């Protein structure tokens, strides 16, 4: 629940001022031992929670961070999970609902009764190749958790223009607020998408390709040097950054769309 939703509940009399005050006080910095300071209040302030970056963390530290966050919140999202962390994640299945993307790199752990609050934001995700799908799915999971409706079209690379145009038409027909274009190799997809649509496009370069530049460098440089003005770009494999940027745009648009129709 973000700050706006909390205030709406107060205005409707669903919760008292005293209850709201207690909730706001909970949304501070959670100091966890000597190794972590988790920003509990981030979702209230800016609309999405701090996502735990698991890679490189001691498994015991990761477990304690997740546990402490769940004590204060109904949900936690953990990114860049590796095999050594799987046993830690599995332990939470006893009390919580746990699910992940196909690559098992992003996990969502939440109360079994937790319900996603729909925002009305609409996001399109287009992936250039089949190898890009797992990364696109990471973006999808995060954006769905943030209340957005997500529409996807995969294997839409520009090597086949008809295939690409069919995929773009499919996504645009949903009247999405923003598109995340996911591509490795030479990373041309986002530039072409941006040249054809009048909504924000976020380019997500991937470390997928051959030889020189094949670890995402070529895709990133291509997107940064795009002739399609206004293309937004995140770093290589930064699915979290792309997802949060897309949700910020879509949820902002949805808020004003709702106000306009009221």
Descriptors:
5-stranded parallel beta sheet, Rossmann fold, 262 residues, alpha/beta, 2 domains, 10 helices
In short:
The chain is of the alpha/beta class and 262 residues long. 40% of the residues lie in helices and 19% in strands.
Describe this structure in words.
- The structure is a single chain.
- This protein has 262 residues and is of the alpha/beta class.
- The protein has two domains: 3-111, no CATH class; 122-261, 3-Layer(aba) Sandwich (Rossmann fold), CATH 3.40.50.1970.
- It has helices spanning 3-11, 17-26, 42-46, 59-72, 86-91, 133-145, 161-172, 189-194, 217-224, 239-261; strands at residues 29-32, 36-39, 52-53, 75-79, 96-100, 107-111, 122-127, 149-153, 178-183, 201-205, 232-233.
- It has a five-stranded parallel β-sheet, sandwiched between helices.
- Helix 6 (133-145) packs across helix 10 (239-261).
- It is globular and about 55 Å long.
- Ends: how far apart? 22 Å
Number of discrete helical segments: 10
What's the arrangement of strands in the largest beta sheet? 8-7-9-10-11
- The CATH architecture of the largest domain comes to 3-Layer(aba) Sandwich
CATH class of the largest domain: Alpha Beta
Q: Which fold name corresponds to the CATH topology of the largest domain?
A: Rossmann fold
Tell the overall outline.
globular
Rounded mean pLDDT is 88
Report the order of strands and helices: HHEEHEHEHEEEHEHEHEHEH
Radius of gyration: 19 Å
Note the main sheet.
5 strands, parallel
Number of β-strand runs: 11
Structural class: alpha/beta
> In percent terms, what proportion of residues is strand?
15-25%
Number of domains: 2
What is the percent of helical residues?
A: 40-55%
């Amino acid at each position: 629940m973000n700050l706006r939703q909390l205030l709406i509940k107060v205005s409707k009399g669903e919760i008292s001022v005293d209850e709201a005050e207690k909730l706001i006080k909970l949304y501070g910095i959670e100091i966890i031992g000597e190794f972590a300071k988790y920003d509990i209040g981030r979702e209230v302030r800016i609309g999405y929670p701090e996502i735990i970056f698991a890679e490189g963390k001691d498994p015991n530290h990761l477990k304690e961070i997740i546990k402490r966050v769940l004590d204060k919140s109904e949900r936690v999202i953990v990114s860049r999970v590796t095999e050594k962390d799987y046993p830690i994640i599995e332990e939470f299945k006893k009390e919580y609902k746990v699910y992940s993307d196909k690559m098992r790199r992003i996990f969502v752990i939440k109360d079994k009764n937790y319900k996603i609050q729909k925002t009305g934001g609409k996001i399109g995700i287009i992936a250039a190749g089949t190898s890009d799908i797992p990364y696109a799915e990471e973006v999808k999971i995060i954006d769905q958790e943030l209340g957005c409706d997500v529409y996807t079209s995969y294997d839409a690379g520009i090597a086949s223009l008809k295939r690409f145009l069919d995929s773009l038409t499919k996504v645009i027909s949903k009247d999405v607020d923003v598109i995340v274009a996911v591509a490795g190799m030479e990373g041309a997809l986002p530039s072409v998408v941006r040249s054809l649509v009048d909504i924000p496009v976020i380019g997500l370069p991937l470390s997928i390709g051959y030889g020189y530049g094949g670890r995402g460098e070529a895709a990133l440089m291509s997107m940064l040097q795009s002739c399609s003005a206004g293309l937004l770009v995140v770093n290589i494999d930064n699915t979290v950054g792309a997802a949060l940027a897309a949700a910020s745009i879509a949820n902002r648009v949805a808020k004003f769309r709702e106000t306009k129709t009221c």
